[in-house]
Amino acid sequence: MKFARQRYQQGSLRRVERKSGDVWEFRYRNHAEVGSPLRQITLSTLEFPTEAKARIAVQERVLNMNGPQAFKARNNPTFGLVIDRFIKEERLEEIVAQRPGHVVIEGMSYSTAAGYISYLRKHIKPRWAKMPIDQIRPVDVVEWLKSLSLAPKTLGHLRNVMHMLFERAMLWDLIETQRNPIQLVNVKGVTRRKKKIIVLTPEQCQELIELLPDPYKTMVIVAICSGLRVSEVLALRWEHFDFSEGTMLVQQGVVNGRIGRVKTEASEDEIPLDPSFAEALKAWRNKTSGTGLVFTSPSTGGCYYAGMIQKQRLKPAAKLLGLPGMGWHFLRHTYRSLLDETGAPVGVQQKLMRHANVATTMNIYGGAGRKAKQAANSKVVQMVLPQAIAM
Q1: Which residues contact 257 (CB under 8 A, 6 or more apart)?
Q2: Whole-number Å distance between alpha carbons of 333 and 303
Q3: What stretch of H or E contains 119?
């Protein structure tokens, strides 16, 4: 039994002279339309100076014309095609182009999209865009990562983005479904913390609060008394508080002025308001309009920028207390440490920290204060030492 030979079209690419300058003309037939009309795409020779670069630019159009199997068999797709398609499907450029004050409801958060765009354009695309996907070897990726003068954490992010892009290439049937080759790539030191975390004592918390004027004083009170991330503190709205029930709803965060969802699904939760904490918030509300954002920047009318507050207010105040290098996230670590000193069960701590996994609460935020460690150590000594001396 004979089967008809399946034909795939590659389109035609030629360089054409025009009065305004040379251009590339890519012509193809659109079989999705009645009569399969001839269509044309024009590319700038300034942007794509060589035929090879022009052909890479039209790869996705050829893929749409013939389907993934034909594209894979005839065109040997490049990693650049995967990158461009990922940027397009995830709307990364659209998200990053959003102006401060914009509320992001769907898609990636602004910070995630901006991170991906940065990794792709600065590092991954310049090195791998022209490389056929099936020719990228794990050993070459390892050597490339070693050649970059970047922090281990950043190298880890680059490795993870490469891994994700290979997953997408398999999903889109551009390469065979197989073990992801980037699984063989390991980056050392990714989980090693370079900066020592500062955990404040209750006395230091009080001193820090006294050194700061409002609204920064109230921001720090919220961070220490609730464990909220600074992105969540700055995105709080008065309608998120129910003072009669003694609760506060955490459901959004802000990064670089763009308001979006909180970091994880577990982070969106209702947390309790202690009466003393509630009174501090009410005192601040009396100084404001009492509507909209809890902390409204007088210069923008929108959210404050965490980095500027940390640089201009938090760090100088902490330095006066002998706490150099203080950052917003240290206050979240402090909250976790103080929870530990109260003897709160780990499960309760996990819920208050709004972690999806209890291991995060224990391993990443598991620092204990000196007094707590001394008390625990003394209990062990008292159980052993008296008996040992009596012997």
Answers
A1: 99, 100, 101, 300, 302, 303, 305
A2: 24
A3: helix 110-119
pTM: 0.66
Taking a C-beta distance cutoff of 8 angstroms, is the pair 267, 192 a contact? no
Helix (H) or strand (E) holding 189: none
Tell me the C-alpha distance between 258 and 303, whole Å. Answer: 8
Closest CA to 78 of 124, 129, 121, 9: 129
pLDDT in tens, the chain (391 residues): 343 444 445 667 888 888 788 888 888 776 656 677 777 888 888 888 888 777 767 766 665 555 555 445 445 788 988 998 899 888 888 888 887 766 665 677 888 888 999 999 999 999 999 899 989 999 999 999 999 999 888 999 999 999 999 999 999 888 888 899 999 999 887 766 556 778 888 889 999 999 999 999 999 999 988 888 899 999 999 999 999 888 888 888 888 888 877 777 767 778 888 888 888 899 999 998 878 899 999 988 889 999 999 999 999 999 999 988 889 989 988 888 888 887 777 877 788 888 777 666 665 665 555 555 555 555 555 655 555 444 4
**Which CATH fold topology does 202-373 show?**
hpI Integrase; Chain A (1.10.443)
Give me the half-sphere count of Cα atoms (radius 13 Å) on the Cβ side of residue 308: 9
Under DSSP, the state recorded for 258 is E
Selecting from 3.50.50.60, 2.60.120.200, 1.10.150.130, 2.40.128.590, what CATH number does the domain 67-194 have? 1.10.150.130
Query: How far apart, in whole angstroms, are the C-alpha atoms of residue 317 and residue 22?
Result: 61
Angstrom CA distances, 297 to 43, 176, 293, 311, stand at 45, 52, 9, 16
Domain boundary assignment for the chain: 18-57, 67-194, 202-373
- E strands, 200-340, in order: 241-242, 247-250, 252-255, 258-261, 269-272
On whether the CB atoms of residues 261 and 109 are closer than 8 A, the answer is yes
In order, the DSSP letters of 11-50 are: -EEEEE--TT--EEEEEEE-TTSTT--EEEEEEETTTS-S
